[in-house]
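Quick entry between incubations.
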Amino acid sequence: MAEGENEVRWDGLCSRDSTTRETALENIRQIILRKTEYLRSVKETPCHPSDGLSNTVSLDGLNKLLAHLLMLSKRCPFKDVREKSEFILKSIQELGIRIPRPLGHGPSRFIPEKEILQVGNEDAQMHALFADSFAALGRLDNITLVMVFHPQYLESFLKTQHYLLQMDGPLPLHYRHYIGIMAAARHQCSYLVNLHVNDFLHVGGDPKWLNGLENAPQKLQNLGELNKVLAHRPWLITKEHIEGLLKAEEHSWSLAELVHAVVLLTHYHSLASFTFGCGISPEIHCDGGHTFRPPSVSNYCICDITNGNHSVDEMQVNSAGNVSVSDSFFEVEALMEKMRQLQECRDEEEASQEEMASRFEIEKRESMFVFSSDDEEVTPARDVSRHFEDTSYGYKDFSRHGMHVPTFRVQDYCWEDHGYSLVNRLYPDVGQLIDEKFHIAYNLTYNTMAMHKDVDTSMLRRAIWNYIHCMFGIRYDDYDYGEINQLLDRSFKVYIKTVVCTPEKVTKRMYDSFWRQFKHSEKVHVNLLLIEARMQAELLYALRAITRYMT
Amino acid sequence: MEKMSRVTTALGGSTLTGRTMHCHLDAPANAISVCRDAAQVVVAGRSIFKIYSIEEEQFVEKLNLRVGRKPSLNLSCADVVWHQMDENLLATAATNGVVVTWNLGRPSRNKQDQLFTEHKRTVNKVCFHPTEAHVLLSGSQDGFMKCFDLRRKDSVSTFSGQSESVRDVQFSIRDYFTFASTFENGNVQLWDIRRPDRCERMFTAHNGPVFCCDWHPEDRGWLATGGRDKMVKVWDMTTHRAKEMHCVQTIASVARVKWRPECRHHLATCSMMVDHNIYVWDVRRPFVPAAMFEEHRDVTTGIAWRHPHDPSFLLSGSKDSSLCQHLFRDASQPVERANPEGLCYGLFGDLAFAAKESLVAAESGRKPYPGDRRHPMFFKRKLDPAEPFAGLASSALSVFEMEPGGGGMGWFVDTAERYALTGRPLAELCDHNAKVARELGRNQVAQTWTMLRIIYCSPGLVPSANLNHSVGKGSSCGLPLMNSFNLKDMAPGLGSETRLDRGKGDARSDTALLDSSATLITNEDNEETEGSDVPTDYLLGDAEGEEDELYLLDPEHAHPEEPEYVLPQEAFPLRHEIVDTPPGPEHLQDKADSPHVSGSEADATSLAPMDSSFSLLSVSHALYDSRLPPDFFSVLVRDMLRFYAEQGDVQMAVSVLIVLGERVRKDIDEQTQEHWYTSYIDLLQRFRLWNVSNEVVKLSTSRAISCLNQASTTLHVNCSHCKRPMSSRGWVCDRCHRCASMCAVCHHVVKGLFVWCQGCSHGGHLQHIMKWLEGSSHCPAGCGHLCEYS
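Done. Structure below.
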C-alpha cells in the first residue's frame, strides 16, 4: 500500500466552492474506506509478527483521520461538510470500526456549552468570520468559538493572527509556528503547543526541532532568553538583550525579524493567558479532545464534571449559586454605586500630589499579595516542558524589584506615539493591525453590566487596563490609582493577576468566584482586556529596549 | 560646528548674533519655547524646567523653575509655552492633566501662579492667544479643549471634540477668534472661540493621529499638519472645503512642524521616533529637504525659531538631554549630495534619460548597448534665480530610440490569445499551438511544440501525416516512430558538436539546422562527414531505397504548397530494428560517426532571419517507444523550458508547463514554476489580457497562484430602491423586501449576468435582452427608449 495515494489532503475542504469541497470529501471517503478494507483484510489473515507494527501504525493513521472527521462534523462552518463527514463516520461505524466521540463538552471548560454559540447557528457576519478562519487554517479552533462572543474583536484578532502567521513577513513560516510554540510553552499551554506543532509540521518544519529547543537552530535558541524574560519579567529587558540577538554573527537576527518575533512572542504569551483564563478545552482532533471508548454511565471523565455541563453538576452549581444570589446581586449594585460616586466625587475630593504618587506604589505593592492561596507547584507536563528551558524562571512581582527598576512612564513611551511607529517601520502593516486590535479591545462596550443597561463602563475598563499595566510597573501620570481599589474587589484581582502573570494556575473556582452575577460574555470581555493589556505591556518593554538599542 | 559665523539681520533695530552651539541639560526635554525678545528659551520635560539665556557663545542657565523638596507631578511637563506679549508669563501642560501658569515677576523663589485641574487626562498642548494677554487654550488626552481666562479661577469654556484625544491646539495668527485642533483619530477641527457648542469645520487630514499643526505666519489661510503617517500636509483653509496644497513625505512620524519665518514655503519638522534629525522643507520640493540639522543623538522633541522675523536661527530640545541652537548657514544640504536624474518613456517606446553632465561624461567611456541607437544631446540649463535648487550646473539628456519594429509585442498578445492550453488531447493542443506560432513567424517555437507532441504522444495516436512533411510517406512502413527533440545550444560549443549517432545498418537521419551564426560550424561538420555532403538539399539521409521517394516528396510537400514552412524537418523512416539503441542523448552526441549531417547555408539564413542571437539545432531521431518512455526526455524538456524562460519568453515556458501538466511538473521545482507563473500573469495583465491571465491562474497547479483569483471576489451591490447596501443576498433587499434586479423581458430576478441600458437603466438577463433587441429597438420595459446593444 503506497503511502502517497493515501495521503489525505484536507485543504480542499477549505475552499469556498461547494463542489470542490464535495470532491475533496469524496476523496477522503475513498481513502478511509480503502484503509478500513486494508485493516480488515489484515485482521482476517493470520498475523505475522512483522506485520503487527505496521498494523498498529496504519490503525493509528486511520484513527487520526477519524478524529479529524469528527472535528469537521462538529466544527466546520460549512453545513455540507458537517453533514457529509458525519455520514462518513456513521458508515464507517457500520463497518464495525470504532469511531471516536468528542470528550468533554464544548470549547470551554468554564463556560457551559449551551452558552456558547453553536456552529451552524451563527448570523451572516459571524459565518463570514468562521469561513475566513476556516479557509485560512482548515479548522475552527475553540478560541475562535469563545471569542465569537465579541465578533467585532474577533475579526480584528483573526486578521492580525492571519497576517502574523501566513502573510508576508521577514520570518519563514515554520519559524513563526515554532516561535508560537516556544511562547506558549513558557506558560505550559499544551493547547496552543499542540495546535502549533501540527501547523509547524504542516508547513514543513523539521520534526527534530520539536524534541526540544536545543535541537532547533542556534538562532532560535538565542531567542529563548528573550522569550523567558518577556513572558515573566518584561521590565528586565534591556538593550543588551537586543544587542545580543542582533550581533551574534552568523546566528544574528535582523531588526525586522526581531520585531516579527517579538510580536509573535507577545501575541502567544497573551493568547496563553486567554486559553487558561477562559478554560479552553483541547481541540476535538487533538490528543485529549476525543476518545474511542464508548460512553458509559459510570465513566464520566473528570473534565465533564468540572465543566458544569453535566446535569447533576448543574444542580450543584445552582444550589451553590442560590445561596449567594442575593450576595452577588449586591455586588453588582455596590460596584455601580462606587462608579457613580467616583464620577461625582472626582471634582470635590482633591488628592494631594504625594498621595497620588503613593497610591500607585501602594497598588503596586498590594498586587504582590494578591496571589491566591493555593500556591502548589504545578509540574509542567513533560511533552510541553521540553520546549523551554529553565522551568524555575517565573513571574516575580515587579514591586519587589521596585528599588532597582525605575517605573515605566507611559507619557514617555507609549504605544500610540512610539511603539506603533517602530513596529510599522520594521514590519509594515502590523503596527496598524495591532493598533486596531488594541483600540477595539480597549473601547469595546455594550453599555451593559450584568442585568443593567446603559452603563458607562469606561471607568471600569480603564481600571482593569491600568491595573494590569501597574502589575508590570507601567504608570499613567494622569490616573488616580485609588480608583482601582474601589472598583476591583479581591477575588477579581486574584483572577486578573493569575491570568496575566501565571495563567497555568487558573482554576474554575477562580473563574466562578469573581463577578458572580455577570454574564459569561462579560467575563470573556474581561479576558480580552487582560490579554490585550498584557500584550501591550510586553510590547512596550520590548520595543523600548529596541528603540534604546537603535539610538 | 566650531566655525564661527555671525549673522546680522535687519530687524527693526535689533540684531541677532550667535553661532551653532549646544548645551547639556540634566534631563530629556519634552518641549521648548522662546521668549518674545529672542534672548531666552525655556526648556521643559518630565524632570526639568529651566530658563536659559541665549548668549553669543553659549547658553547660560538663568532660572530653575522646578523648586520644592519633593517635585510633584504638576512639574512633569508635556508642553510649555511662553507668552508672546508678556515676557513674564509662561504656561505648562502637565502629564497628570494639570495646566499651570507661571509668573516670572513674582518675588518669591516659587514662580507658580495658577493651577487648573480641570482635565482628567494628560494635557498634550497649551497655547496662548497671540494678541490677547489673558487667554490660554489647552488640549488634553480626554478629548476636551479648554479656554482659560487667567483672571479667573476656572475655565471660560470647554470644547468637546467628540472624537478622540486632542494632540495639538493652535490659535490662528490672523483670525482673532479662530483656533485649530488636531486629534488622535486623524481629524482636524476649526473652532470659533465664541462658540463652544460645535466646531466650525472638521476634516480628516491624516491616517492615524495628527501630532501637530502650525498656522502660516503670513498667509492667513494656510495650516500645516504633521501626523503619524509620516506626512506633512499644507491646507488652504480659506476655501469652502479645506484643500490640500502641498504634501511632504518624511521618513518617520512627524512630531512637530513650524513654519520658517520670512520664507513663505519653508517649514521645519522633527520626528517622534527613529529619526533624530531636524529637516527644513520647501513644500514645493517635497522629496529632498532643503536643509538638515544632524546634531541630536536622540529624537528631537521641541523646535522653535528664535525670532519671528529671523529665518536663520533654530532652537531645538531633544530626548538626548541637550539644547541646541542651529544656524541655517551650518545646515547640511542633502541636495548637494544628490545626483538628480530623470528617466522617461516616450509614446513610441523611446527612452529619455537626463543626468548631471559630469556623471554622463564620466560614463561615456562605456560602450552603448548594441542595438540601440543613441543620440546624446547636451544642453545648458538656464539658471533660474527663483529656483531654490538653482546652481546645479548643467545636465545631459540622452535619448534612446527603439529600433523600428524591434520591440513590438504584437506576437505576445496574439500568441496569448490564440494558444490553446487545455480542453483537447495533448496532440491537438501541440499542433494547434505549433500552428499559431508558425503563423506568427516564430518557427523555433513552432518546432518545439511539434517536438513536444512527438515526444509525449503515444505512437498510436499520432497521425503520421502530422508528423512532418518529409516523413509523410516514409512512415507508411509501420514501425518507425519519430522522436524529435530540440536542443538549444546554451553554449555555442554545444551547437557545433552536432554529432550524430548511427547504429549499425539502421537508417537514421539527422538534420542539423543551424542559423547564420553557426553556419561555419555547420560547414565544418559537413566536411567531417564522409562524402555524403549534398549541399543543395534540405536533407541528407541514409537513403536506402526510399531515398528517391523522399527526395521527391520533400520539395513537393514542403515548398510549393507551404512556402512559409521554413523549417525543413527531415527524418527517415527506419528500415531495420535498432538493437542497440543509445540510452541517452549524451551518448547520442558523443558518437561522431554520422556522415549524414547537412546544413545548407542559403537555407539556414533564410530560415531564421529574425533570430540572430541564437542558433537552432534540431535532431530528428527515430526511436522505439518501448525503449524510450517520455520520461526519458523530461530532463531535456526541463532544460528547454529553462532556456525559454531565461530568454525572456516566459510565455512559452508557462504554456508548455500547462499543456504538459503532470508530465513535466515534477521535474521543475515549485518555486521556479511559481516564478514563471507570476511573471507571465503579470505580463498578461499589463497587456490587459484579463481573460487569458485568469485562465492561466485557473490552470496553474501551484496553490500560491491558483489562490490569486480567489481574492477579493466579492461584489457589493446597493438596492436600487432604498440605496442601502444589500448584505445577505445580491438580489433581494432586506430593508424594502423588493427584488432589486428584475429582467424586463421575463420579469424574473436576474441572478447571473445582468445587462442594462445606460440610457433608460432598464435591463435583464443578457440572453433575453440580446434576443429582444434583435427584434425590436425599443426598450423591453415599455418606457419608449430606443436602446442600443453593442
